[in-house]
TrEMBL record:
It is found in: Cytoplasm. Belongs to the XseA family. It comes from Ruminococcus callidus ATCC 27760. HAMAP family: Exonuc_7_L. Keywords: Coiled coil, Cytoplasm, Exonuclease, Hydrolase, Nuclease. GO terms for cellular component: cytoplasm; exodeoxyribonuclease VII complex. Signal peptide: none annotated. This is Exodeoxyribonuclease 7 large subunit.
Amino acid sequence: MAEARRKTVAILSVTQLNRYVGFKLKEDRALQSVLVRGEITNFTNHYRSGHLYFTLRDAESCVKAVMFRSHAQRLKFLPQEGMNVIAAASAALYERDGAFQIYVTDLQPDGTGGKALALEQLKKKLTAMGVFDAASKRPLPAMPQKIGVITSDTGAALQDVKNVIGRRYPIGHLLVYPAQVQGDAAAASVCRAIAAAERDSCDVLIVGRGGGASETLEAFNTEQVVMAIYNCTVPVVSAVGHETDWTLADAAADLRAPTPSAAAELAVPDVRQMLQQVQDCSRRLENAMQQQFRQKAQELERLQDRLKLQSPAHRQELAQQELCHLQKRLEAGIRQIWQQCQEQLVQQTNRLDVLSPMKILGRGYALAYHGEELVRSAAQVQSGDVLRVQLAEGEITAKVQ
């Protein structure tokens, strides 16, 4: 009997044994979809292939785990050594090594802070890439012609944006790019809308949605949407949720607005304020022009005065005045000299008159001339000479006897 039993036992190769055990594990449906809680150890991120290799352990046991690239690239966080996680997996035997392991299709951090941890990890990653750097922020255009709005076409946020822009900036052209703003397809939908707005050469984009629970804002915390905003060639204003809400998209945008209405106010100017500014500038310009005109007129007057002083006509006028002055001085000098000469003539005449022999003759004296010679002595004449006697009035002829 025992001998018969020994004859029925088959001799298996190692490969056959491992293959058999692996087949049995695959047949067990309970092992093809299991959730396993444990701590990650021996973690290896195979960057070339994209596969993740690690061990899950608890206080008493451990199991090897593999997560292939197709599943790993969908993770919202990066697993780390010592992290407690819950793994969705299937149990199997790695036939080559005869090693029991699980093939993980999804990982979630164990505990209520799982999503927060994933968000924090993504934030650190994007910060290291410089996505949130203030130096990369671009100024918004002062007067955009095309304003793109990326949000749900059925939400209140779009109507708020339309109302604000219609009131503040009716001259702008509003382009709406409808997108899903929540759900699994929201991130891809928002990215497609951003790309469409870029193709249409919008001048500024408003990307966002109305308020809601934090779960409804998840699309704006995805790396896909954040990078689409960061790489967008058009300045982006982020307006996700209420004023107290905060997303990674807000940090990546060129400007963050607390609400969609506030985003519209930031994206476009107020034409009424612009008109008032134009009027103020016009008044200031007019005052400045008048002041400049007055200054230039005064300067022109000063230059004209200087030019007049330097002109030949003015110089001729000055020369003419100088000539008249000299002529008057000459005439005055001539009159003075003439008067002096007159006075001297009178004086000399008076002196001559005093010394004139005629004065003596006037007193009864006479002058006798023998020819042309004045007779001063009787010895100068002889009897019979004829003399010419000059009297005070007239002359007579006398004969010496």
